[in-house]
Amino acid sequence: MLSIIASLQRKNNEPVLRGSWNSAVFLFLYAITFSFAYLSLSTGTGALILFGSVQVTMIVVALRSGERPRVMEWMGLMLALGGLVYLVFPGLSAPSPLGSALMTIAGISWGFYTLRGRGSQNPLGDTAGNFVYAVPMVLAILLVSLKNVSITPYGVLYAALSGALASGVGYVIWYAALRGLTTTRAATVQLSVPVIAAWSGIVFLAEHVSVRLVIAGVLILGGIALSLSSRAKKT
User: Fold this and answer.
1) Which residues, 6 or more positions from 9, have their beta carbon under 8 angstroms from its beta carbon?
2) How many CA atoms lie within 13 A of 162 on its CB side?
């Protein structure tokens, strides 16, 4: 999907695929550890470990690189994190040590994948290249686990839609958005993902609207708005 789009959007003699092996490794590590971690973690526990690891990774790197978040950015991050904890709290359970370790690796990997994308001048080409470079790593895992693979028509359809649209095109948009965000703000904005997923379930799957979801959504989105508003006031 990304290779086709990149080919159609190519200008002059620009390479269709850009990206790097380093970014592809982080992308692969995120995807594979995330997948195996959820075999032994509840949804809420996994989300909390994942997003917590992403935020810590990105903020530590931001501080080490000399970025100094403003007070409102810290307040916004804490408010959004509090909203995430409140949202997933009913699903929290004593986590599996192995599952926790795998999800922590997933969060750290996604944090570094995101950080590498902040300097992208060609989000489409970079994302397409990263996905292509990750293919050999995925094939290696597939060969090892081939005897446990079960393929169905619906499974293939959902995997294709998830990979081509939800992941491929979604990651291009994320790389493009990163150019206008500091590392701290990028870390905070990502906390909107659980809220978007929950509301999508309501819209597309007719899931129930709960008071907890509304309150958590207000906290998370309010925290993101507070963090982003510091930039507006500065400019």
Assistant:
1) 124
2) 7
pTM comes to: 0.76
Name residues whose C-beta falls within 8 Å of residue 111's C-beta, 6 or more positions apart in sequence: 53, 54, 55, 56, 57, 58, 61, 187
Cα(19)–Cα(5) distance, integer angstroms: 15
Amino acid, single-letter form, for residue 60: V
Extract the tokens encoding 86: 């409140």
- C-alpha 227/C-alpha 232 separation (Å) is 10
What is the C-alpha to C-alpha distance for residues 2 and 126, in angstroms, rounded to an integer? Answer: 10
Look at the block and give the residue holding tokens 């491929």: 168
User: What is the chain's pLDDT, residue by residue, as a tens digit (235 residues)?
Assistant: 777 777 777 766 666 677 789 999 999 999 999 989 988 887 777 887 888 888 888 888 888 888 777 788 888 888 888 888 887 777 666 678 898 899 999 999 999 988 888 777 788 888 888 888 999 999 998 888 888 888 899 988 988 888 887 777 787 787 777 777 777 777 778 777 777 777 776 777 676 777 877 888 888 888 878 777 765 445 4
